[in-house]
User: Fold these one by one.
Assistant:
Number 1:
Amino acid sequence: MSRIHPPEFGDLSPDISEILLTENQIQQRVGELAGEISELYRDKNPVLVGVLKGVLFFMADLLRALPIATEVDFLSVANYGGDSRKQGPVRLVKDLETPIEGRHVLFVEDVIDTGLTLNYLLRTLKARQPASLEVCVLFNKPTKRLIDIPLRFKGFDIPDRFVVGYGLDFHEKYRNLPFVGLLKPGVFSPKL
Ligand SMILES: O=P(O)(O)OC[C@H]1O[C@H](OP(=O)(O)OP(=O)(O)O)[C@H](O)[C@@H]1O
Ligand code: HPA
Ligand SMILES: [Mg+2]
């Protein structure tokens, strides 16, 4: 089975300087992660919890690769600091609809950078007394971490660079690229 993509990504392609992970590499690793996850959660009917919006493609692909019964739910967060994101605390702007007390919860994240977002969310979910709470992250930037977080399932360690694609955005753009890449210096400005 193959997916249909335009040969070029229209007006997005010229903004990309380098592809770090191809669509095939990502899809293969997602399949491997699904295998590992299904071993741990067989017969446990876990709740997969994702944080919007970056996780949308990873969650969709992971769910479809999992050969076990699961449920899915989503959270949404905002940074108190507005534009100075990644520096201040986060707050919940959309909560789960699923009560997770006594449930096996797998937190699914697209990228972990400082770990501040995940740290806040894990503390919030732990207080609801799930039967278990583990983390699955696709892209991990180990050198950016401010808070240590145990990662039960991990897709790739990636360098400390700002990446886009496969759900990851720069000012809400580039999420729809099927690969993960770097933006050209003229396009990406960390101060924006
Ligand atoms: O480890 P941290 O430094 O906290 O960064 C990781 C968070 O940043 C990204 O979300 P973002 O705030 O970009 O929201 P989005 O998913 O809607 O793009 C990502 O999806 C994580 O939730
Ligand atoms: O590299 C990144 N790209 C997009 N969003 C992000 N959020 C944390 N790190 C990143
Ligand atoms: Mg983002």
Number 2:
Amino acid sequence: MTPAARLQAAIEILDFTQAGAPAEQVLTNWARAHRFAGSGDRAAIRDLVYDALRCRGSFAALGGGAGGRALMLGALRARGEDPAALFDGARHAPAPLTEAEVAALAAPAPPAEALARADWPAWLLAPLEDSLGAAAAAAVLAQMRARAPVFLRVNLAQISRTAAIAALAAEGIEAVPVALAGSALEVRAGARKIAGCAAYRDGLVELQDAASQAVAETLPLAPGARVLDYCAGGGGKALALAARAPAAQISAHDIDAGRMRDLPERAARAGARIKVLRPGQPGGPYDLVVVDAPCSGSGTWRRTPEAKWRLTPARLAELTALQREILTAAVALVAPGGTLAYMTCSLLRAENDAQADWIAQETGWPVVARRALSPLEGADGFYCAQLRRPA
Ligand SMILES: C[S@@+](CC[C@H](N)C(=O)[O-])C[C@H]1O[C@@H](n2cnc3c(N)ncnc32)[C@H](O)[C@@H]1O
């Protein structure tokens, strides 16, 4: 497909997403209906769509509207390209620019800071600034307009980082160590080959953000420790902990058993022993209880841009109430002298420090460690507070 034809495809897909359809579903339907498009075309179109969803506010401001056409015009303008060169009406290309579009594109562009603010939900600007401070919030807003890097976690129980880099390189995947976490690699080239590569199939590497890895590395984990991943989902934290301490007794629990469906297979691949518990039957007590709570996901919105536009104040209030409910249940599972690790992938104080302080007040347990990572550290936003139950 020509670059202009890819643009036209992205326009059509964005028009569906703007009408409320989930992007993944629309992309899949589009690919089914356009079998001639190769994997390179599909990946390029997907990037155009996701960039536009992430930068929806600024592209709309630059392109003069909220529809797929205006978003693509805004995208080209943001990249300093001349839209008229691709909107030329050639076969499969977008129709030529209208007079109104030419006028919109000639209007002065808003300043860079205003564009970055337009790409964050307006109602959440003040909470973000309250949480991070005005200067850091401005830097984070700018950073979050770009695509997120792809990170791998090296299964250090099976292979060293250096050997993993060599194994990946042999399959055409270029990865480099990341300072943030001892197990983390950043993929610089060949990311689309990961799911099919031997190192992944053999459980030597897993996809996991470097901030999650950094936090998992700081949790107290004595050999033989009893550990519960209470909100395990796909089991990312349980697997990271198992790689760190193969002798630990790690259990995974989630209210939704379906979320843990792939965990036995992932654990087998990694050579890890993880006991999958039934929902509502978390057992206990445990030396370490990890609560990776449901949250806004605001630290990961570079990867899931639709989520930022979907979040509402009412949903955020529901989430903070749920976090307290989960924390209250988790407290009862911690052994005397044990640790409760509360974590979210949020940047917002209401979901982070405010919740840790609340449960510390409720229990009288001291907060012994806190870590708040933002995309300025290079990975997703991630938060963790550790509370120690008195012996
Ligand atoms: C942020 S996700 C967990 C991600 C996972 N730890 C990982 O690393 O892949 C939050 C999880 O909490 C689960 N959850 C929601 N309410 C819960 C509850 N009351 N008790 C236990 N788990 C719950 C959700 O089903 C979801 O899988």
